[in-house]
Structure formats: C-alpha cells, structure tokens
Amino acid sequence: MQYDSFDDFDEVNSPRPDDNDFSNILHKAMSRRGFIKTTAAFGTTAFVMGTAARIPLAGAAESATGSSAGSVLGFQAVPATSADTITLPPGYKHQVVASWGDPIFSSGSPFDPVTRGTGASQELALGDNNDGMALFPLGEDHGVFVVNHEYVNRDLFHPDGVQTADDVRKSKAGHGVGVFEIKKTDGKWNIVMDGALNRRITADTPMELTGPVRGHDMVKTAADPEGVTALGTWNNCGNGETPWGTYLACEENFNGYFATTGDVDAFEQTPLQKRYGVGAKDWGYSWYQHDERFDLSKNPNEPNRFGYIVEIDPMDPNSVPKKRTALGRFKHENAAVVIADNGHVVVYLGDDERGEHLYRFVSKNKYVEGDKAANSDLLEEGTLYVAQFDEASDDLAGSGRWIALLQGTHGLTADKGFNDQGDVILNTRTAASAVGGTTMDRPEWVVANPNGTDVYVALTNNKNRGKKPNAGGIDTPVNGPNPRVGNLYGQVVRWNPVDGDHTGESFEWDIYALAGNPTIHDDLNAGSANITADNMFNSPDGLGFDENGRLWIQTDGNYSNEEQFAGMGNNQMLCGDPATGEIRRFLVGPISCEVTGVTWSPDRRTLFVGIQHPGEKGLPSHFPDGGDSVPRSSIVAVTREDGGIIGT
Ligand code: FEO
Ligand code: CA
Ligand code: CA
Ligand code: CA
C-alpha cells in the first residue's frame, strides 16, 4: 500500500507528537561504538545471523528473570500485514466492545456519522482515541471498565472544523476518562447502559490537587485562589492500577491545549513554559478561543495544574479524582505500581519526550493489604527519583542508580530556583536534569513482571538522539540504554533492582529487545538477536504483563511498510517471553491505527486491547464498521474459539 510521506510534526503545532516521521533516515550516521564493542567481546559466531552482526540477546545469555521454564508463548505467530482489519492467530477471534461516540447513558444518542455528535451527546458517550485501560471486576463476567480518551482526531471528530463554543464543549468531552460497566452475555461483552458506576470524566471535571504543589503560588488562579482544585484532565495516555482498586490516568501532552489571545510574536516563554512546551500557540484544539482558562494572557498559571498522575476510584462515581503531584510533573506515559517487599509503594514512570527521563516514586507510608481506606492516600507523600544509567558494558548492559529529587539536596536549592518541594515538582524535568538523570529515547510504558523483580520500559524512538539537545537544552549523545544515533526503531530496556529491592538505590539493566530491520541492516539497526524477519516491528509503546509472565508489546510507529519499515506492516501487538527473549507477533491492527491499552477479564480468557486512531491522516481505514463508515477508535475483546486462556 502506498502512503503519503509522513508529516514532519512541528513541536509546537503538531496535532500529536508521535514520531512517525522517519523521512530523515540516519542509519548511515549511526554510531558504530556499541556494535564494535559487542562483536569484540562476543566474537562473530554466537551473535551473527546471516549477514547481520547482532547484539547478544541478554535474556538468552543470562536471564534477568530467574525463570528457566520453556516458552510461555502458546500461539502461532501472525505475519505482518497492511490489511484494514484485526489479524489474529488461528483459533482466535475478536469483537468490538465499544467505540468513540457510543453512549453509556440511555439519555444519550447513538453515534451520528454525519455530525459526529454535539457537546451534549459527547458528554454522555465514550470519548475519542482510547488509550490506557483497566477492568475492575464486579464478578466473573461483569466489571467496570476504565479507559483514557487521550485526545481527539480533529479531522474526523469535527467534520466542519473547530468553530463554535459547542465544538469546544464536544472536544473537551471527547477527552478525559470513560468509566462504564461491561457484562458478558452469550459470549459477547457489552456496555451496561446506565450502569450504576458509569461516569464520564472530562476536561472540566473538578479534581483535587494533592501533594507538594497543593496550594503553591504557581498553581493559584483567579478561579481557584487557594490552588487546590483543578478542572479536568486531558491527554491521558497510558494508565496504572493500584492494588487498592484505583485507576491512574496519566497526563501526557497537556501543553498543547494552551495559547494566548495576545500578541503571538511578542509572547516570551518563561523557562518553565519552555521546558514543558507551553507556548503562544496550541496544537489546533482551539479551547482557548472559547474558554479563557486556556488563554495564557489571562491565566498564566493554569498549565501548572496539569502534567500529573490522576487517581480515580472507579467504584464511587461521585468520588473526586486526585492529582498526585508527588509523582512528578512531566509528560506522563503510564504508571507501573509495585508493592516492595518492605511494604512501600513504588511507582515507575516515564516522561515521553525525546531526551527526557525515567522516574521512580517511593511512598512514605506502607501498604496495608486489604485496607482500602488506609491505602487511599499512599500516593500523596513520598520521594521521587530519576534514573541514572551507567554506560553499557560490552553486551549493552550495565548498572544504574536512582537519584532523589528532594529540595535542599543534590543542588536543588533556593539559589537554583528550588525554594521548596513544590518548585521541584513543578519543574521536575529541570530538577531531574540538574542531578544527572539520563536522557532517554522517549520513555513510553513501564511494566513490572508479576513473577519477578524485573521491570521493562519501552523507549519508542528518538530521531534527535545524538543530534539535538532535549527540551531543556541538555545534550543527548548516545548512552548505555540508548545506543543508536537518530534511533528509528526503539528498544525495550529492562532493569532489575539490586537484591530485588524496588526501594533500593541501585539496579542492573540490559536491553530486552532492540527493535530493528534485519532484512536491510547489518549493524545495530538490525536489532537484537531476538528480532527476526518474522517478528520485526518499530516503535514499542504500550506494554503489559499477564499473570503468567508474558510480556505484551504494542506499537505506535511507522506503518508505511516501506523502506526502513518494509516488512513490518501496520501497528501491532507482540508477545515476549522474558526468560528466553522469544517474541511473536500476536495481533495486527487496521490501517493507520496505533495499538495501545491492554487488560484482561478475571479468568484471563478475554484480552481487551485498544485500537486508536484508525484512519488518521486521512488514510483509508473504515474500522470497525467497514463499508464507507467513519473510522473510530475502539476497544476490542479477543477470545479463543475454544474458550481457552489467552496466549497459552
Ligand atoms: Fe501518548 Fe507517549 O504516547
Ligand atoms: Ca503511548
Ligand atoms: Ca507513542
Ligand atoms: Ca497514538
């Protein structure tokens, strides 16, 4: 299939910042350093396949999981494809559970493919661009489903453009979080219309600011002079779940919704605005034209109330979501929650921007099993850390440490502008860089192995690696876990805390998968030894572990299936064995979609997966309804014909 060349997304005016632009191919300039060191250390027999000199697969050479069982992958791999459908292994089938515009209240209206809804109808329906998701069981075949609606695909969402106040009302309701009960009847999962727990959280839903920035001068506004109540959440990308039954929605590109009605040319960014990409123009959502909350000339502090993790209790539709500012302010991807052996809650967090950092939060107080009330504010207080990776040893592995971001330590002092912990959190990025955090290739999802202490982060790609500084002006040369200049393909990096202590200072890391194209490269761009012509992919993004320890990998990359990406097909979902390193393609999504968001039914016989933005950029998808229908982001349920457990 022939696609138009990919737009070079402008950092300020991009409709979304995902890097599908690889027109400036940099493989020729790629550093040979890692490759040379690898082959020097390991010779050319064990790690050479065909003409491609490959870096060793760390998982095969020395398992970081401690598991030595056979493969946990029990399905037949599917080939890459550019088909406008969901492609699954033999014996698997899918159904669409819910799509953008589907009402969750009987007072709403069915999706209207002509108008595509109004502000009022959208407030009673599921939003656009489903992303992170979780199912909270209410029974074996019944649960409350929570899903992020990351942003709206404006070309499809507003057939007449964004012009009126109602267009903006609809856009705000197309964002946020959807909470709705689902039930399985006659083998099919359906929305429970008017379910008691059904709720839409939008860009206008009141939320409590908790933690270090609560009441800080920089979050006070005319509408909220105390700085304690923020309205809404948007651009929620990945998610997290806590063991006490709450959902974490993660605010990513919050900056793209602010603009000034003043003189654009005269607008001068503050250093804080510059680091977070808040500027004179928005990314085209136009909210500022109908709601002065988004007009920086009137409300310069409003953006400081965004960029956080939002904790939502799905079991109480009247609960006020809480912004957990102790977990840092940045372009949050997702939140991987672990209870450490010593009882502290540990949350691993990525900041998805080129050359930004990887973080860890450790709660001050300890988890009390089974006591939801005691646990409900564990994310309010604790210590935030940034990851510092050492340079790689010969096999692209090494050690690293966590550095605390605490006011008064490591140079985070008043003379540097950090007068209190609120200042550190508001400008987490600057604090993290100041203490020596490692610049990463766009940290997307982080997941922790439920059967081990190994943790994985998807580093999706970074065309600027080794070429341009990050948003803070920090240089980004290749480094240990980010070994390629102009990284086109991305990698999944794994670490294991020393002594298995998630609250400890140090960790050991390796690269679980260096994505690449071994059919056209024979250098580091061929990828690691577990990347083959049969499973190659680019731009790992969503990650999920099932309880049997399978690592599910979702992609948000270049789907041209040409040149550097020839043979990779549409975006997809693969499954990896942490112990052996084997990776098999499980699902391929429809045209121009991203596959993102994953959760399971309690019996593990249904896999829920998100298909985001099919048909973006005007590409010819008609998923899920076919014919000439409007493509819609959808939540899909995957089951086996024989009713078996997914993946076995
Ligand atoms: Fe919304 Fe970083 O993906
Ligand atoms: Ca993502
Ligand atoms: Ca992405
Ligand atoms: Ca996306």
Could you characterize what this model shows?
This protein has 648 residues and is mostly beta strands. It has a single domain, classed as 6 Propeller (Neuraminidase), CATH 2.120.10. Helices cover 9% and strands 28% of the residues. The chain has 9 helices and 30 strands. It has helices at residues 33-42, 58-61, 119-123, 154-157, 165-174, 271-276, 372-375, 421-426, 428-434, and strands spanning 48-49, 52-53, 92-99, 130-139, 142-149, 176-185, 188-191, 199-201, 206-210, 229-231, 236-241, 247-251, 309-312, 322-324, 332-339, 344-351, 358-366, 382-389, 397-404, 443-448, 455-459, 491-497, 506-514, 540-545, 551-555, 572-576, 583-588, 594-600, 607-612, 634-640. The strands form 6 sheets. The protein has a 9-stranded antiparallel sheet, with no helix packed on it. The chain has a 6-stranded mixed sheet with strand order 10-9-14-13-12-11, with no helix packed on it. Strands 4, 5, 6, 7 and 8 form a 5-stranded antiparallel sheet that branches. A hairpin with a 6-residue loop joins strand 28 (594-600) and strand 29. The protein is globular, with a radius of gyration of 23 Å. The protein starts with 32 loop residues before the first helix and ends in an 8-residue tail after the last strand. The chain binds MU-OXO-diiron and calcium ion (CA) (3 copies).
